[in-house]
Design goal:
Residues 40-179, 211-349 form the SIS domain. By secondary structure, the protein is of the alpha/beta class. The chain contains 14 helices and 10 strands. Bound molecules: fructose -6-phosphate.
Protein backbone atom coordinates (compact mmCIF):
# COMPACT_ATOMS: atom_id res chain seq x y z
CA UNK A 1 0.00 0.00 0.00
CA UNK A 2 1.15 3.51 -0.89
CA UNK A 3 -0.28 5.13 2.26
CA UNK A 4 0.49 8.84 2.25
CA UNK A 5 2.79 8.50 -0.77
CA UNK A 6 1.69 9.73 -4.17
CA UNK A 7 3.89 7.13 -5.88
CA UNK A 8 5.45 3.82 -4.89
CA UNK A 9 8.82 4.94 -6.20
CA UNK A 10 9.26 7.46 -3.38
CA UNK A 11 8.00 5.00 -0.79
CA UNK A 12 10.52 2.43 -2.01
CA UNK A 13 13.34 4.99 -2.00
CA UNK A 14 12.47 5.76 1.63
CA UNK A 15 12.43 2.06 2.57
CA UNK A 16 16.09 1.52 1.69
CA UNK A 17 17.68 2.04 5.13
CA UNK A 18 15.28 -0.55 6.57
CA UNK A 19 15.98 -3.01 3.77
CA UNK A 20 19.72 -2.86 4.47
CA UNK A 21 19.20 -3.30 8.20
CA UNK A 22 16.95 -6.27 7.41
CA UNK A 23 19.72 -7.92 5.38
CA UNK A 24 22.13 -7.41 8.29
CA UNK A 25 19.65 -9.08 10.63
CA UNK A 26 19.10 -12.01 8.30
CA UNK A 27 22.66 -12.70 7.22
CA UNK A 28 24.99 -11.49 10.00
CA UNK A 29 25.56 -13.27 13.32
CA UNK A 30 26.10 -11.46 16.64
CA UNK A 31 29.87 -11.77 16.25
CA UNK A 32 29.74 -10.19 12.78
CA UNK A 33 30.31 -13.44 10.89
CA UNK A 34 28.23 -14.25 7.82
CA UNK A 35 25.31 -16.69 8.11
CA UNK A 36 25.03 -18.36 4.71
CA UNK A 37 24.68 -22.04 3.86
CA UNK A 38 27.99 -23.97 4.01
CA UNK A 39 27.41 -25.85 0.75
CA UNK A 40 26.81 -22.58 -1.09
CA UNK A 41 29.88 -20.91 0.43
CA UNK A 42 32.01 -23.95 -0.41
CA UNK A 43 30.83 -23.84 -4.02
CA UNK A 44 31.77 -20.16 -4.20
CA UNK A 45 35.11 -20.87 -2.58
CA UNK A 46 35.95 -23.52 -5.18
CA UNK A 47 35.27 -21.21 -8.11
CA UNK A 48 38.28 -19.62 -9.81
CA UNK A 49 36.12 -16.87 -11.31
CA UNK A 50 32.67 -15.41 -10.70
CA UNK A 51 30.39 -14.57 -13.61
CA UNK A 52 27.64 -12.13 -12.67
CA UNK A 53 24.81 -12.21 -15.22
CA UNK A 54 21.89 -9.77 -15.13
CA UNK A 55 19.84 -7.13 -16.95
CA UNK A 56 19.14 -3.42 -16.45
CA UNK A 57 19.46 -2.12 -12.93
CA UNK A 58 20.46 -5.56 -11.65
CA UNK A 59 23.35 -5.53 -14.15
CA UNK A 60 24.35 -2.14 -12.77
CA UNK A 61 24.35 -3.61 -9.24
CA UNK A 62 26.61 -6.32 -10.67
CA UNK A 63 29.08 -3.70 -11.90
CA UNK A 64 29.45 -2.51 -8.30
CA UNK A 65 29.57 -6.15 -7.13
CA UNK A 66 32.63 -6.80 -9.29
CA UNK A 67 34.64 -4.26 -7.27
CA UNK A 68 33.32 -5.68 -4.01
CA UNK A 69 34.10 -9.34 -4.88
CA UNK A 70 37.53 -8.52 -6.26
CA UNK A 71 38.56 -6.24 -3.37
CA UNK A 72 37.07 -8.16 -0.41
CA UNK A 73 37.30 -11.76 -1.61
CA UNK A 74 40.16 -11.49 -4.13
CA UNK A 75 38.25 -13.44 -6.78
CA UNK A 76 38.31 -12.31 -10.44
CA UNK A 77 34.76 -11.34 -11.35
CA UNK A 78 33.16 -10.64 -14.70
CA UNK A 79 29.81 -8.92 -15.20
CA UNK A 80 27.70 -9.67 -18.24
CA UNK A 81 24.48 -8.44 -19.79
CA UNK A 82 22.24 -11.51 -19.87
CA UNK A 83 20.91 -10.98 -23.41
CA UNK A 84 24.49 -10.78 -24.72
CA UNK A 85 25.96 -13.59 -22.67
CA UNK A 86 23.31 -16.11 -23.69
CA UNK A 87 24.27 -16.10 -27.34
CA UNK A 88 27.89 -14.94 -27.23
CA UNK A 89 29.47 -16.74 -24.31
CA UNK A 90 33.05 -15.70 -23.61
CA UNK A 91 35.76 -18.25 -23.00
CA UNK A 92 34.99 -19.55 -19.51
CA UNK A 93 37.52 -20.21 -16.75
CA UNK A 94 38.18 -23.78 -15.48
CA UNK A 95 35.83 -23.48 -12.51
CA UNK A 96 33.27 -20.77 -13.13
CA UNK A 97 30.43 -19.99 -10.76
CA UNK A 98 27.47 -18.02 -12.04
CA UNK A 99 25.66 -15.40 -9.99
CA UNK A 100 22.29 -14.26 -11.33
CA UNK A 101 21.13 -10.92 -9.97
CA UNK A 102 17.42 -10.45 -10.53
CA UNK A 103 14.81 -8.57 -8.54
CA UNK A 104 11.89 -10.48 -10.06
CA UNK A 105 13.58 -13.82 -10.69
CA UNK A 106 11.64 -14.03 -13.96
CA UNK A 107 13.67 -12.05 -16.50
CA UNK A 108 13.68 -14.09 -19.72
CA UNK A 109 17.19 -13.03 -20.78
CA UNK A 110 18.61 -14.26 -17.48
CA UNK A 111 16.52 -17.44 -17.54
CA UNK A 112 17.94 -18.30 -20.97
CA UNK A 113 21.50 -18.01 -19.64
CA UNK A 114 20.70 -20.09 -16.57
CA UNK A 115 19.26 -22.89 -18.66
CA UNK A 116 22.46 -22.94 -20.73
CA UNK A 117 24.59 -22.90 -17.57
CA UNK A 118 22.56 -25.82 -16.27
CA UNK A 119 23.04 -27.74 -19.53
CA UNK A 120 26.79 -27.16 -19.22
CA UNK A 121 26.63 -28.57 -15.68
CA UNK A 122 27.91 -25.53 -13.78
CA UNK A 123 26.69 -24.42 -10.36
CA UNK A 124 24.85 -21.15 -9.91
CA UNK A 125 23.49 -18.76 -7.30
CA UNK A 126 20.46 -16.55 -7.81
CA UNK A 127 20.21 -13.39 -5.70
CA UNK A 128 16.57 -12.34 -5.94
CA UNK A 129 13.76 -10.55 -4.17
CA UNK A 130 11.14 -13.18 -5.04
CA UNK A 131 11.20 -16.56 -3.27
CA UNK A 132 10.27 -19.46 -5.54
CA UNK A 133 10.73 -17.40 -8.67
CA UNK A 134 11.91 -19.29 -11.76
CA UNK A 135 15.54 -18.20 -11.47
CA UNK A 136 15.52 -19.14 -7.81
CA UNK A 137 14.08 -22.61 -8.47
CA UNK A 138 16.38 -23.39 -11.37
CA UNK A 139 19.67 -22.25 -9.81
CA UNK A 140 21.72 -24.42 -7.45
CA UNK A 141 21.54 -21.87 -4.62
CA UNK A 142 19.43 -18.83 -3.71
CA UNK A 143 20.07 -15.78 -1.57
CA UNK A 144 16.96 -13.69 -0.87
CA UNK A 145 16.93 -9.89 -0.69
CA UNK A 146 13.80 -9.70 1.52
CA UNK A 147 13.27 -6.12 0.34
CA UNK A 148 9.47 -6.41 0.27
CA UNK A 149 7.52 -6.09 -2.98
CA UNK A 150 8.94 -3.55 -5.41
CA UNK A 151 5.94 -2.08 -7.22
CA UNK A 152 7.32 0.94 -9.09
CA UNK A 153 8.66 -0.12 -12.47
CA UNK A 154 11.91 1.76 -11.83
CA UNK A 155 13.99 -0.34 -9.49
CA UNK A 156 15.41 1.40 -6.42
CA UNK A 157 15.47 -0.68 -3.25
CA UNK A 158 16.38 -3.85 -5.17
CA UNK A 159 19.54 -2.12 -6.44
CA UNK A 160 20.79 -1.12 -2.98
CA UNK A 161 19.69 -4.48 -1.53
CA UNK A 162 21.65 -6.32 -4.22
CA UNK A 163 24.78 -4.31 -3.41
CA UNK A 164 24.36 -5.02 0.32
CA UNK A 165 23.82 -8.75 -0.42
CA UNK A 166 26.93 -8.84 -2.61
CA UNK A 167 28.87 -7.19 0.23
CA UNK A 168 27.77 -9.84 2.73
CA UNK A 169 28.55 -12.64 0.28
CA UNK A 170 31.97 -11.19 -0.56
CA UNK A 171 32.80 -10.84 3.14
CA UNK A 172 31.86 -14.50 3.75
CA UNK A 173 33.91 -15.63 0.77
CA UNK A 174 36.87 -13.43 1.72
CA UNK A 175 36.88 -14.94 5.23
CA UNK A 176 37.02 -18.45 3.72
CA UNK A 177 39.89 -17.31 1.54
CA UNK A 178 41.48 -15.53 4.52
CA UNK A 179 41.98 -12.25 2.72
CA UNK A 180 43.24 -9.33 4.79
CA UNK A 181 40.62 -7.08 3.20
CA UNK A 182 37.77 -9.31 4.44
CA UNK A 183 39.29 -9.59 7.93
CA UNK A 184 39.47 -5.78 8.15
CA UNK A 185 35.95 -5.21 6.82
CA UNK A 186 33.35 -4.92 9.59
CA UNK A 187 30.23 -5.75 7.63
CA UNK A 188 27.63 -4.80 10.24
CA UNK A 189 29.34 -1.54 11.09
CA UNK A 190 29.81 -0.53 7.45
CA UNK A 191 26.30 -1.49 6.32
CA UNK A 192 24.75 0.31 9.30
CA UNK A 193 26.81 3.38 8.45
CA UNK A 194 25.56 3.17 4.85
CA UNK A 195 21.94 2.76 6.04
CA UNK A 196 22.34 5.85 8.23
CA UNK A 197 23.82 7.80 5.30
CA UNK A 198 20.84 6.81 3.14
CA UNK A 199 18.49 7.95 5.91
CA UNK A 200 20.13 11.33 6.11
CA UNK A 201 19.97 11.70 2.30
CA UNK A 202 16.28 10.78 2.03
CA UNK A 203 15.65 13.31 4.80
CA UNK A 204 17.01 16.06 2.48
CA UNK A 205 14.46 15.53 -0.31
CA UNK A 206 13.62 19.23 -0.60
CA UNK A 207 17.12 20.12 -1.75
CA UNK A 208 17.00 17.49 -4.50
CA UNK A 209 13.50 18.50 -5.54
CA UNK A 210 14.72 22.08 -5.96
CA UNK A 211 17.67 20.94 -8.10
CA UNK A 212 15.39 18.80 -10.30
CA UNK A 213 13.10 21.80 -10.87
CA UNK A 214 15.98 24.18 -11.55
CA UNK A 215 18.11 22.03 -13.85
CA UNK A 216 16.05 19.15 -15.22
CA UNK A 217 12.51 20.45 -15.69
CA UNK A 218 12.77 21.16 -19.41
CA UNK A 219 16.14 19.86 -20.61
CA UNK A 220 16.29 17.38 -23.51
CA UNK A 221 19.43 15.63 -22.35
CA UNK A 222 21.77 15.27 -19.40
CA UNK A 223 24.99 13.53 -18.38
CA UNK A 224 26.14 11.73 -15.28
CA UNK A 225 29.91 11.48 -14.95
CA UNK A 226 32.27 9.72 -12.55
CA UNK A 227 35.41 7.61 -12.39
CA UNK A 228 35.90 4.11 -11.03
CA UNK A 229 33.12 3.14 -8.64
CA UNK A 230 31.52 6.57 -9.23
CA UNK A 231 31.30 5.71 -12.92
CA UNK A 232 29.40 2.51 -12.00
CA UNK A 233 26.99 4.63 -9.94
CA UNK A 234 26.70 7.11 -12.83
CA UNK A 235 25.49 4.32 -15.13
CA UNK A 236 22.65 3.38 -12.78
CA UNK A 237 21.91 7.06 -12.01
CA UNK A 238 21.45 7.76 -15.71
CA UNK A 239 19.22 4.71 -16.25
CA UNK A 240 16.96 5.93 -13.43
CA UNK A 241 16.67 9.43 -14.87
CA UNK A 242 16.02 8.35 -18.46
CA UNK A 243 13.45 5.68 -17.65
CA UNK A 244 11.13 7.82 -15.55
CA UNK A 245 11.69 11.33 -16.92
CA UNK A 246 12.40 10.53 -20.63
CA UNK A 247 15.40 12.88 -20.52
CA UNK A 248 18.04 11.34 -22.77
CA UNK A 249 20.81 10.61 -20.29
CA UNK A 250 24.20 8.94 -20.45
CA UNK A 251 26.39 7.71 -17.64
CA UNK A 252 29.92 8.48 -18.72
CA UNK A 253 33.47 7.93 -17.51
CA UNK A 254 34.57 11.49 -16.68
CA UNK A 255 37.86 11.20 -18.53
CA UNK A 256 36.27 9.78 -21.66
CA UNK A 257 33.95 12.73 -22.32
CA UNK A 258 36.71 14.76 -24.01
CA UNK A 259 37.31 11.91 -26.50
CA UNK A 260 34.17 12.70 -28.47
CA UNK A 261 30.98 13.03 -26.47
CA UNK A 262 31.84 16.52 -25.23
CA UNK A 263 30.57 17.71 -28.62
CA UNK A 264 27.05 17.19 -27.25
CA UNK A 265 27.49 19.78 -24.49
CA UNK A 266 25.48 22.94 -25.19
CA UNK A 267 24.42 26.01 -23.22
CA UNK A 268 22.77 24.71 -19.99
CA UNK A 269 23.21 20.96 -20.65
CA UNK A 270 23.06 19.47 -17.14
CA UNK A 271 26.16 17.50 -16.16
CA UNK A 272 25.88 15.72 -12.83
CA UNK A 273 29.19 14.60 -11.32
CA UNK A 274 29.56 11.90 -8.69
CA UNK A 275 32.77 12.37 -6.70
CA UNK A 276 33.61 10.01 -3.82
CA UNK A 277 37.10 8.76 -4.65
CA UNK A 278 40.01 10.91 -3.38
CA UNK A 279 42.32 9.40 -6.05
CA UNK A 280 40.33 10.86 -8.90
CA UNK A 281 38.34 13.75 -7.39
CA UNK A 282 40.64 16.45 -8.80
CA UNK A 283 40.58 14.84 -12.26
CA UNK A 284 36.78 14.73 -12.37
CA UNK A 285 36.64 18.33 -11.18
CA UNK A 286 38.95 19.34 -14.02
CA UNK A 287 36.71 17.43 -16.47
CA UNK A 288 33.85 19.51 -15.08
CA UNK A 289 35.72 22.71 -15.89
CA UNK A 290 35.96 21.48 -19.49
CA UNK A 291 32.16 21.19 -19.73
CA UNK A 292 31.48 24.38 -17.76
CA UNK A 293 33.57 26.32 -20.28
CA UNK A 294 31.28 24.92 -23.01
CA UNK A 295 28.18 26.17 -21.19
CA UNK A 296 27.14 23.12 -19.11
CA UNK A 297 25.27 23.51 -15.81
CA UNK A 298 26.92 21.33 -13.22
CA UNK A 299 25.41 19.54 -10.22
CA UNK A 300 27.87 17.92 -7.82
CA UNK A 301 27.17 14.88 -5.63
CA UNK A 302 30.28 14.72 -3.44
CA UNK A 303 31.58 12.75 -0.46
CA UNK A 304 31.77 14.84 2.70
CA UNK A 305 35.56 14.72 2.99
CA UNK A 306 35.98 16.00 -0.60
CA UNK A 307 33.18 18.57 -0.65
CA UNK A 308 33.44 22.34 -1.07
CA UNK A 309 30.87 24.99 -0.17
CA UNK A 310 29.64 25.10 -3.80
CA UNK A 311 28.78 21.38 -4.04
CA UNK A 312 25.00 21.01 -4.02
CA UNK A 313 24.71 17.49 -2.55
CA UNK A 314 27.06 16.22 0.15
CA UNK A 315 27.19 12.49 0.98
CA UNK A 316 27.80 11.40 4.57
CA UNK A 317 30.93 9.28 4.96
CA UNK A 318 30.63 5.57 4.03
CA UNK A 319 33.19 2.84 3.32
CA UNK A 320 34.88 3.46 -0.09
CA UNK A 321 33.44 0.20 -1.50
CA UNK A 322 29.91 1.17 -0.48
CA UNK A 323 29.73 4.72 -1.83
CA UNK A 324 27.19 3.66 -4.52
CA UNK A 325 24.71 2.96 -1.68
CA UNK A 326 24.86 6.64 -0.72
CA UNK A 327 25.52 8.30 -4.08
CA UNK A 328 22.60 6.61 -5.85
CA UNK A 329 20.04 8.08 -3.42
CA UNK A 330 20.13 11.71 -4.66
CA UNK A 331 20.12 10.31 -8.21
CA UNK A 332 16.99 8.26 -7.52
CA UNK A 333 15.38 11.37 -6.03
CA UNK A 334 16.43 13.54 -8.98
CA UNK A 335 14.79 11.01 -11.33
CA UNK A 336 11.64 10.92 -9.22
CA UNK A 337 11.23 14.69 -8.94
CA UNK A 338 12.07 15.30 -12.60
CA UNK A 339 9.37 12.85 -13.64
CA UNK A 340 6.89 14.47 -11.25
CA UNK A 341 7.85 17.98 -12.41
CA UNK A 342 7.09 16.91 -15.99
CA UNK A 343 3.75 15.47 -14.96
CA UNK A 344 4.39 11.81 -15.73
CA UNK A 345 3.10 8.68 -14.04
CA UNK A 346 6.32 8.03 -12.11
CA UNK A 347 5.48 4.42 -11.25
CA UNK A 348 4.51 3.39 -14.77
CA UNK A 349 6.85 4.93 -17.33
CA UNK A 350 5.75 4.52 -20.94
CA UNK A 351 6.86 1.40 -22.86
CA UNK A 352 8.21 -0.37 -19.77
CA UNK A 353 7.11 -3.44 -17.82
CA UNK A 354 8.15 -4.44 -14.32
CA UNK A 355 9.23 -7.90 -15.32
CA UNK A 356 10.50 -8.50 -18.85
CA UNK A 357 9.51 -12.03 -19.79
CA UNK A 358 10.46 -11.94 -23.48
CA UNK A 359 13.99 -12.14 -24.88
C1 LIG B 1 15.21 -0.54 -14.16
C2 LIG B 1 14.57 -1.85 -14.11
C3 LIG B 1 15.00 -2.88 -15.09
C4 LIG B 1 15.27 -4.20 -14.38
C5 LIG B 1 15.62 -5.29 -15.40
C6 LIG B 1 15.98 -6.60 -14.71
O1 LIG B 1 14.75 0.31 -13.15
O2 LIG B 1 13.73 -2.10 -13.29
O3 LIG B 1 16.14 -2.45 -15.77
O4 LIG B 1 16.32 -4.00 -13.48
O5 LIG B 1 14.53 -5.49 -16.25
O6 LIG B 1 14.95 -7.07 -13.91
P1 LIG B 1 15.20 -8.15 -12.81
O7 LIG B 1 16.11 -7.57 -11.79
O8 LIG B 1 13.84 -8.46 -12.27
O9 LIG B 1 15.83 -9.35 -13.48
Amino acid sequence: EKGAYEFFMLKEIDEQPGVIRGLEQTYLAEDGSVKLADDMMNALNQADRLYIVAAGTSYNAGLVGKSIFEKLAGVPTEVHIASEFGYNMPLLSDKPLFIFLTQSGETADSREVLSKVNQLGYESLTITNVPNSTLSREATYTMLLNAGPEIAVASTKAYTAQIAAETILAKGLGMLKQTAAAADFETGFELTKAANAIQSLVDQKDVVEGLAQKYLGTTRNAFYIGRGIDYQTAIEASLKLKEVSYVQTEGFASGELKHGTISLIEENTPVIAIITDPKTAALTRSNEQEVISRGASVINIVAEELATAEDQIVLPEVHPLLTPLAAIIPAQLLAYYTSKERGYDVDKPRNLAKSVTVE
